[in-house]
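User: Could you walk me through two proteins back to back? I'd like the raw sequence and the C-alpha cells for each, with a short line separating them so I can tell where one ends and the next begins.

Assistant: Of course. Protein one, sequence then structure:
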Amino acid sequence: MAEPLVLLPGLMCDARVFWPQIAELSATTAVTIAPVTQGERIEEIASGLLDQLPKRFALAGLGMGGAVALELLRRAPDRIIRIALIDTSPLAETPQAAAARELLIVKARSGRMSDVMQHEVMPHYLPSGPDKGAIMDLVMDMAETLGPEIYVRQARALQRGKDQQAVLRKCKIPALVMCGEFDKINPVKRHSFMAELIPHARLTVINGAGHLPTLERPRQTTAALQDWMGMPFVLQ
C-alpha cells in the first residue's frame, strides 16, 4: 500500500472538493482529509494539525490548503514524504487584497455568505462546461455548511499569511505543482514560478480547468496525483 495521503481543502471547502480523488485513490491508499478551519493564522492551523496527522505522509493542498501545506513542510520537513501544491500561492497577500477581505468579513458576519462566495470563487473563475453549475452549487453548499465563523477565521489567516518562497527553495522531496489552465485566482504563471523555485518539481497544467481542477477535470487531476505518488524518493 502507498504511504498515507493527507489532503488539505481550500477556502470554505470540505472533503467534497476532493471526492473524485478520494473515490479513486482510497482503494490503495489511506486517505485523510485534514480541515484547515481551526485557527486565525496559517501557523496556528498547521500546528494544530501536526498532532493529528500520521508520523510520515504524502501531502496535497488545494488553494488555502496549499498555504497550510507549505507551513507544515516548514515546520516538519522530516514527516512529509512528498508534496503537491494545487491552485495555490506561496506569496503573502498584498495590502490591497487583505483590505478587500475586511468587506467580505463584514458580509459574512451579516449572513451574506452567498455574496462572499460569489466574490471568492466567482462563476467566471470556472470555464464554461456542462458541470459548471453543479460545481458552483457544491461550492456554495460547502460554504453554507462551514458557516460564517469559519470564513472569518480563514480570511484572517490568509490576511496574515507569510511569504513561503524560502520553503520552496529548500524542498528536497518529490513535488507536484498543479493548476487549472484557466485559473484566474492563482494563474499558470504563478505556478510556473513556484515550480522553478523547487528543485526537481513537476509542473502540471490541467487543460480546460479553472480554480477547482479536482472537480472540473477529476480524471486528469487524479492521474497527475497518481503519477506524483509514484515519483521516486531519491531525485536525480
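----
Protein two, same layout:
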Amino acid sequence: MTPTDAPKLPPLARASFDRAADERAEPGIVERLRGRSDTRVLVVRGDTAPLSEDGTLALSAPAEVGAGAVWAFLGRTTDGTAVLVAAVDAEADAPVAASTWGSLRVVGGDLPAEQAALFVGALALGRWLIDSAYCPRCGGTTTLRSGGWARSCTVCGREHFPRTDPAVIVAVTDEPGERLLLGKNAMWAERNMYSTFAGFVEAGESLESAILREIEEEAGVHLTDLRYRGSQSWPYPRSLMLGFHAVAADPDRARPDGEEIVDVRWFTRAELVAAFAGEGEVRLPGRASIAHRLIRDWVEA
C-alpha cells in the first residue's frame, strides 16, 4: 500500500507530540517550566480551550494564567517547546483571557494535526487532574507527582494513574456493500442525528466479543468480516475509541433496542453525501469524531 492509498487516520490521531516521559521524573519539573517565559500553556476549561482569531489553539505564557488551575507537564512540540496544561472545571472562572473558547467535539477535527493531539491529550489529562484528587481505595487526599501524571495517596500510599476505558465503534454495511446501517441515539432525537454503533468493552471481554454483543443488542443484527480501522482518544470522560468496519449477515433483522437506540436506518451513499453537505433533515457526527471518519470511509470507498 502506498502512502496515497493508505486510509486517513482518525481526526484526533493524525499526529502526536513528544510526551517527554523521561522529564516527568525531574523533581519540580512543573514549577521550573512555569518560571520560563518560553514555556507555553494550554488552558482547559471543562472540555474547551481558548482559540485564536484563525481558529487555532491560543497557547499562553505561564504568567498570563491566573489562579485556580491544576497544572501538569504535557510534553513538547516538534520544535522542542515545553507545553504545560492548566485545567479548571467547566463552572470555574476562566484563568486566562480569551474572546473565544472551543470544545474539542466541535473544533478538534479542524485543528492542525499537532494541535489536535495536544488538545485531546490536555483534555484527557486535565479531566483526571480535576476529578481524581482523592484516593478511590481509602478516600485520602493525594499529591501529584511525575509532572502531574501520577497521584500518591497521603494515607494508604497507593499510587494512581490516569485511566483509559476501551470502547468499540463500528460501521456496519450490508453484504453487497451498497448500504450503511446507522442508528439514532435517544439523546439525539431532537437533532435527528444518526451515527455508527458504539459501546464499552466490559470486564473480561475481547474487542471482538464486545462488537458482536453491542451491535446485536443495539441494532439486532449479527456481524461478519470484522476489520480494524483505527483508534483515537475520546476524553468523554476517558475513552479510547477503537474503530471497525463490519458486514451484517442478516440485514433484514435490523431494529432498534428501543431504549438507547430509538431508530435504525439503512443509508445509501447518495443519502450520506447529501447529509454531509447539510441537505435534508438527517445530521451526522462532527468532524472530530471517529464515527465521522468511519462513515466517510464507506462513502468515499
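Confidence is low (pLDDT under 50) at residues 1-5.

Let me know if you want the two compared in more detail.
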